[in-house]
Queue: 2 jobs
Job 1
Amino acid sequence: MSAQPEQAEPQEIAEFRRDVRAWIQANRPPEPGFVMPQNFLFVETDEQFDYLRDWQRKVYEAGYLGLDWPTEYGGGGDVHKRQRIVTQEMNRAGAPFFVNTIGLQWAGPVILEYGTEAQKRRFLKPILSAEEIWCQGFSEPGAGSDLASVQTRAEPAPDGGFIVTGHKVWTTLGTRAKWMILLARTDPEAHKYAGLSFFLFPMESPGVEVLPLIKMTGEGGFNQVIFSEAPMPADAMLGKPGQGWEVAMATLTFERGAAEGTGGGQATSSAETVRRVVELAARTPRDGRPAATDAILRDRLVQLWIEEEALRLGALRKRTPGLNADRPLALALMNKLVYSEYGQKLSELACEMLGPETALWMGDPNAPDDGDWPRAYMNSFGMTIGGGTSEIQRNILGERVLGLPKSK
Amino acid sequence: MNNPVSHFDFGDDHEILREGARRFLEERCPIEAVRRLADDPLGYDPGVWKEMAELGWTGLTIAEAHGGAGLGNLHQALLLEEMGRRLLPSPYLGTVLAALAIARAGDETQQAHTLPALASGGALATLGWLEPGASWEPDAVAARAEARTDGFALSGTKTHVLCGAQAQLVVAPFRADDGIALFAVEANADGLRVEPETCLDPTRRTARLVFDGVRVPAGARLARAGADVWGAILLQAAAWLAAEMVGAAEGILQLTRDYAVERKQFGRPIGSFQAVKHPLVNDMIGIEMARTHALAAAAAYDQMPDPPATGARMAKALASDVLATAVRHGVQFHGGYGFTIDCDVHYYFKRALFCRGMLGDGIHHRRHLAATLFGDADGTA
């Protein structure tokens, strides 16, 4: 149902799409034989990580990752911006996701925009090949939605570099990452926003301790990072001193899908779609009949189909500026909010549809889809909370798009 | 099956039409005009109608061969959105829907006979879209067309007919011996009784049309017949109405947003409270999604003559729900003032109630969409 082959596409795009599809068909890795995480936030074991890293490297070597990035930094230099076609086809095929998501979607684009020539040459290619994994150091125990109140300090060192002291949380892939995009306070005297700088921090520095956090699903993948006078060199800074807030906001704009230019790739596989829940409904008994015949469930699922279609068609509309003239930023800024809440509603609906069978968790031989649905529902909160909670997103939309006064 | 549009053909001509319409309607249809026309017996401004005809709007999608501008559905959707935003009281919607039906069901001779007068704005027309029993299923036609030697005798009742008392031409389905067929009937025909309704929406005029053996010539029967033809017309009409409703939703959101900025309580604008801000953001998101669907549904008709029903159904379903929510917030956030007839919100509120029920609401279209999604006729049998 979702994502029909695009019709009436220009010839060269249609051919490219066919090539990508054939390549995925021929090269996708076999089913791993172990439980896979549902998205990049929840990579836990070595075998999961290796499987995903091998896949990303293979896609990159085939020329299907970093397509839109300049060739001098390891990209494909594609003027047709065809990375999105690859992403669509990967999603359609249910291919594994790319494990270096922080690098591809946040670190890479922001280095492209703010980095020096040396930084671009140093960092971008190993992001694409997954040779160097990235993590993000924004949130702190006392700085979640109020991100600008970060307390982690980066103080000048005698060698011209910086000494970092502080505590970051929700650090996905913290144990695997070689680099961290780090938001830290360089000037405690300055105004809250003006005192921040942005760094490309080497995780191998002494004085860095990575401790796991366990999520409500029992899965790991998240960490907290303690910095105890951890050194970093002078050229670790991205942008200028005091420009950290601007760079961090630019990063979050990439994260919300508001800007073109990410390295590409989907951050999730086994994406929950309406079609998957339709299939579930056909094989789920409810009150002695297939759930697919229940009028109320059908109606609720159709409501989500309408949202799913609005998101898909909205991506087409977004590329037509004349159809966004009144609110040029709206579709871009609402994307993360709508998509994350759609996914949450969908996995919750699947759980409700399963009725008593939703009680069976991963590992139980009778659990429908090995407990994927309750796990997806729990994991969906990573999306509605991470990268700016839905509540913060609504504040941003209300203030920046509708022009409503700031909430105190 | 999904809406198969792969792109939007938006050009300078779309831009010019939309900007021109916005300026014209700002000037000719301020809220004062809506208030005045709400109490006017005719219910629209003939001078504005004449100007709209001169702008080419009455014949916007009518073929150039029949005196129209020959533009597309996306143009029509953009124009209707602007009209909806201003709640333009006008015989426009009924007239363009009648022209749509004639263009889809009439042969060349019938089109040449009727469309030029509609394109020029010289005649008002309307669509007999519904009957007592209130079913939007295309086969729910009880009105009869009985064959006579020189034509047909039409009997039956059509309800909630837009500008039914003002239109000179009515296009409506009747059940003939060989199934459902559409007829184009002169409104002053003998035996056609026009009973104006007391319409809840003061920006609309509707009537109940009672056909009591109305004699029409054989040529009044439009050439392409069948419930599928009528069903396709109802769907395309629903897509157009959805575009107008997106405009109305945008209008009430703007009004409510402005009030939330200006109105102070506890020493702060009420729009700074998240209890007000977040619902307005949700309305904005809903409107943008409904607009995406309305534009995509229209674009599909420009890219193929009979696109899957999904596009129009999703557009009308979502527009119905989004507009209903936006007007509810409109009244609520205007507080006690919003509850009075002095506050303009009630015009939008009544427009929303009117439009939701016409051409199928969310419940209706989602039931059909479910059958498509689950690949069955109706799983709830």
Note: The CA atoms of residues 99 and 292 of chain A lie 35 Å apart.
Job 2
Amino acid sequence: MVTVGTWRDDAASMGSVLHALDDLRCRDHRGAVRTSFLTLLVVGDAAIEVDDVFDTVHGLGEHQPSRVVALRLLPGDEHRLAARVGVHLLPRGNQCLGIDDVALELSGEVTAHLDSVVEPLTLPDLPVVVWCRKDHPDPDDPLLQTADHLIVDSALAGGRAGLGHLQRLRRRVQVSDFAWLRLLPLRRQLAMVARRPGVRPVLDHVSAATVGGTALERSLLAGWLADRLPGVAIDEDDRSGGPSIVLATGEVEVTVTQADATVTASVVQGDRPAWESTIGALPATTEALLASALLQLRPDPVFDGALATAARRSDGG
Amino acid sequence: MDASAGVLGRPADDALAHPLFEGLGVDRAASPAAVVIFGASGDLTSRKLMPALQALASRGQLSPGTAIVGVGRTDLGDEGFRRQMRQAVEAAGGRRPGGKVDEQAWAQLEEGFRYVAGGYDDLATYKRLGEVLEDLDRDHGTAGNRLHYLSTPPGVFSAVVHQLGAAGLHHPARGGQFCRVVIEKPFGRDLDSARRLDHELHEVLEEDQIYRIDHYLGKETVQNVLALRFANTIFEPVWSRQYVDSVQITVAESEGVGHRAGFYEQAGALRDIVQNHLLQVLALTVMEPPASMSPTGIRNEKVKALDAVDVLEPHEVLSDTVRAQYGGGWLGGEDVPGYLEEDGVAPDSRTETYLAMRLRVDNWRWAGVPFYLRTGKRLPKRVTEVALEFSRVPHLPFAPTQAVQLGPNALVLRIQPDEGITLRFGAKVPGQAFDVRTVSMDFSYGAAFLEEAPEAYERLLLDALLGDPTLFIRTDEVEQAWRIAQPLLETWAEKPVLPVPYEAGTWGPVEADRLLEADGRRWRQP
């Protein structure tokens, strides 16, 4: 990646930030015309390492958002708006992709009006994705008015107890949850098992299911199974271990377990193991999860159903 | 039924039709099948087919019950074939970031490799193949489905299909399953031989079993021509004689004939590129909007488009086409040899390596708009594009000096290698004066999406496994394309026209420039 130029000001205004962006883009003729498709807003508190955020996003290579705005919210009432802007070009074949980084440190009253800060920075007519690195935002957060899509990680924000809150957020905006995306290899391996000769009919006659993993993982998996297989009794196994699913009919048990970078599937008929397979799963790095979330900006009714059911179960409903 | 399939997508196999498997991102996944590759030890299998199958497995789009059966004259054995395919996958980088082979996908395929050695016209070969397929159905779960891929020289297409028929391998092993045959171009050498081949294929197969592949149609950006035209309001209204002055379609290659001299000497640019790739791109450019994106809907409109192309009379072949052959020259900083100096080329060869032509499309939309087509080897760069040049505004309110730098508007669809769209229009030059100059705005297709585009063969192999023929060429399309090419072949045979020379590294002979200059136009420089 080629950096066209950088700019910083510890006492900036939004006007100066926008001027800097225009000015830096004009320094290289290759940035004059470009294809843009997404703005990513990253929100975190004082603990957020802005350079880590940019490293993660740049790790997506040529599949990264056109503009990344990282907001670091500092405590205190004193007004502060410090800004850092970088304009980069990523060579791709005969062309270059233009990438803008904007890092803003804010404190004081302005933190209650983040929408007014980010609105001028979003690329026109294109989706805006808000990635909350730690806490779930409040459903009434004005920043969500700017957002077309919200990315969160329930494992860092409330766990199982936060699912009700996430469900309320979901009513405002489309949501991707890293905690849900981490379970994708498990679900995919179950689908692969189903394509083995003889296994598919078993899944039409599931009478009981057991899920394992952390409380959050169990909650999401149970919510998913309850939503997808209504009427099937679902138990939770709270012994330690990675996420797992056991589907049972009278005669046959299909088990899928995920541990570190492997997913193991087995089919047991009566008391005899009929088949077992272990596959490698790509490590669920932040880059991989972010890429996965950005690729799924369309509505995900399966997650919506799983979340709604999990939230209901968590609330005892 | 038909409208549910097609390029808009097709549901996954029945095994995935279950509530637990919705939303997994494997919305196009094939049923278990034996993929039988004839010509398995050949270049196409290693360079394209095997990497494509590995990529499909990597994306979860192949069933675990998929087997790959090689058939060839060379006796590789199962293990030798597996080893060769592994090398092919490694050479292709395994379709993974960092160029590492996706071992999980490879493990899925590895158990299903089989190899059958034998002659293509020897029934015993097919009897052995039948036994292997039965074993795979029983032990590997291929479920009676077969996809025969003919990656062989075209001269044996008919023999392979007839022997498949004689051995009873031309239909599914069980009712409700499928048996399809994929055939690589060229589909005949001329209109007569194409019809003959078609007749021979239909003696054994139904038309809906035959998948004629032109890998150009598998390219994302070729399919994007349909999206651009029929998903947007702003382009289609100007996509006609009312606004379009002329259309140029260019398929340029910078490479020479390379190691394909044996084939190319018999084919030339007309058979190699024009009759298939170029006319397919033309059909997509001029076709009317289909009622639906179904296979029948799209292919019917393509046939109608080709049917509207005016066939050249013999005297027009001489006046409206330019046939040329490259000589030596400098290209990309290298001193490259002329065609006649290439290995395997006859010293007195008359094979054309360049062809330019002016065609008319006689229908309501395009009457009077000239279509300039050109293709060539050893041109300055590899590029495929469709350029619509628009008529000038009826009246320019500027002084002549103010618009001296203003060219006509143009919309260029770049198909390869730098896929995208360029719009050329006039803009005021900054300053006190009111000068108008042409500027261009580029849209980069690859940069606009996070998603990776599949390789053409990935797309087409999966479509064939799913039974989606939209991007394959129907028998009447082949015939229409030969109808357009045939007068050139006949005229060249009757009145031998020596190809005019052009220097490697240039955009073709001066005669091609004159073809457009006579109409007051000039070729674009892509």
Note: Residues 184-280 of chain A form one domain.
